[in-house]
């Protein structure tokens, strides 16, 4: 189970890291920011991967016990599958509690923190995320630094281009400089030393037959350049999106009588899908064990395929049920809890058949016959080896 959990988290993080790198690539301390953003997704990924890891662990673990005749020894000693399932059910209860904490309380806060961090990265002044030798843009100003010293925010050799639209443009180069904080200015300042400045009054060379005004060129010993633009925008408060609400907050919101119909549908779908995902963890042992145990000489590969297909199908059906409730307002008892009940009933029935009956295998002989037919056909169409003269 732990091996499957590690593999599952690696796959999920690999998918997410592409999006995170797109946000942070080229920024200062981008590696630390990547780790921070991935950490915000960990509660969601652990909530998803832990039940799947339990499912795979049961499939491989009990299958190995069956192949090594350990289950035969247990059964011969009077220990049935029902008793062997008890510790597994205890693990499932622990993981269900973990899923409830992750989906119900931790994930809403971490999702909001992720979105707030992405918003901050998109709106923070670019100088604080600067890298050496990389063109960066803040507002309409583009600049590149040759050397950057993090300890005191100083730099060597800067090129800066400021596009003023119809008002022309300005180019500044400086030998060195430093980022300073001015208490009288809400924006950070770049203090440039020993530089050159060229200003163009217009960027449009096609205005009639009037020639462009000559650029204004000058040198300076020291100059201050303000970065960024003043903005009063802040990230929205938590809770406008229903995924950012905890289970208790979702329940409290659903008790209100002044909710819009669209808002109520989204809250109801989110509340019930979380409960269904938590409850689904409890039936995983009963769904996995029957497919982990097979006949001694039979082909068991198809059992694993069917078991994994059932798990994926159950998850997709529940997610589509949630979407149907959000869009059309269909009852959650029809779109979420009815499919859940069907899967739960099927899992308990399969577990009962595996524990207390001797089912007649009908699919395994069929698969073996089909495999024999394919092998015979392959032997007939396979080219004969070339034979040389003695």
Task: Describe what you observe in this structure.
- The chain is an alpha+beta fold.
- The chain has two domains: 2-121 and 238-370, no CATH class; 130-226, no CATH class.
- It is 57% helix and 15% strand.
- It has ten helices and six strands; from the N terminus they run ααααββββββαααααα.
- It has a six-stranded antiparallel beta sheet with strand order 1-2-3-4-5-6, with no helix packed on it.
- A hairpin with a 5-residue loop joins β3 (154-163) and β4 (169-180).
- The radius of gyration is 32 Å and the shape is elongated.
- It starts with a helix and ends in a 9-residue tail after the last helix.
> What radius of gyration results from the CA coordinates?
32 Å
| pLDDT < 50 stretches | none
Helix coverage percent: 55-70%
Number of helices: 10
Give me the side-by-side strand order of the main sheet. Answer: 1-2-3-4-5-6
Please give the largest β-sheet. Answer: 6 strands, antiparallel
Mean pLDDT: 84
Count of separate structural domains: 2
| Cα separation of the termini | 59 Å
Structural class: alpha+beta
Number of strands: 6
Shape: elongated
Strand content: 5-15%
SSE series: HHHHEEEEEEHHHHHH
